[in-house]
Fold this sequence. Notes:
CATH class of the largest domain: Alpha Beta
Distance between the termini: 39 Å
Shape: globular
Number of helices: 11
Low-confidence stretches: none
CATH architecture of the largest domain: 3-Layer(aba) Sandwich
Largest sheet: 10 strands, mixed
Number of domains: 2
CATH superfamily of the largest domain: Ureohydrolase domain
Strand content: 15-25%
Mean pLDDT: 94
CATH topology of the largest domain: Arginase, Chain A
Amino acid sequence: xDLSIYFDPIEIESLDFFGNNEHPQKILNQIxxxxxxxxxSFENMQLALIGVPESRNSAQNEGAAYAPxxxxxxxxxxxxxxxxxNIIDLGNLKVGKTVGDTYxxxxxxxxxxxxxxxxxxxxxxSNDLLFSNYMAYxxxxxxxxxxxxxxxxxxxxxxxxxxxxxxxxxxxxxxxNYLLNYANIGYQSYMxxxxxxxxxxxxxxxxxxxxxxRKDMEEVEPIVRNAEICxxxxxxxxxxxxxxxxxxxxxxxxxxxxxxxxxxAGVSDKLSSFGIYEYNPTLDYNNQTSQLIAHIIWYFIExxxxxxxxxxxxxxxxxxxxxxxxxxxxxxxVFYCSKKSGRWWMVVPITNKxxxxxxxxxxxxxxxxxxxxxxxxxxxxxxxAFHKLNR
Length: 391
């Protein structure tokens, strides 16, 4: 498949770099760029940068369409990683005549990359592009878990046209449906209606308030370890650290915290697409937000370079098994701890209602879930997964 017909290649000279960028270890000099009129080669490629200058369905943030090149300008100034990584910059997607056309084009591009084990890094654009990211997996008939780092749930309803604040409902209702789980990291209660918070509970989706996550950032790791998609809406970052977003509030993640979230996403063996949305350069101050996004991408790739490869469970000798008896629970809760990484999983049984055959689902967790079981408490993470998988 020749993807070049869908992209406008980046002209490096147009980015107007300042300072010395001749150093061979700058990212600018370590990346592959496409050229106009040439068929794109993906041989040995691991990651692909995709600019998507689309914000026609944004919620009062149309300036997000100008984000991709501003992000590149700061990202390519940085130094590369200790471990080599093969990255190609595909350029900016040619947006469609309608936003729906853009969704279709982007989904086709992403499905090709995902199928070929190349992780796309999407530089949005508005947050509704996450709908297109989901549709890429639907094209592949691939069941998907989504992690959204966002101050809001962006639910909407069936009577509201899709936009950057109303698209999750479209994913939930889309048939056939390939969404297994949705997890929100960093929501702010006063920016979401009580009804929407209740609905997320009824759907057994995972929701984590920004305050609870900030108390223990290590809890982010098992959440993103279970996801194929990770999407960051800059509204999740406090305005003081990311002024280039009209929906940011005084509260949210600090810059170093959102970079840590990105690193956890990168190190997840399962995660196969990553996107950053809602950056508006016209609102930025002294390139502060574009610099932060450049750091977010840098940390995501740093995490990717440190993937461990211990999520297959093909060789059980690589794990330490723990069985814990819990009151009023017929069978022991079973946990596995990786000898390679020290990461934890817990087993959630799935019963086929027709055959009564029980299968095992290995749910990423933390040592806290194991400690709760030892204290005769089943964690909320286990219960939500159990109810969702056995509906």
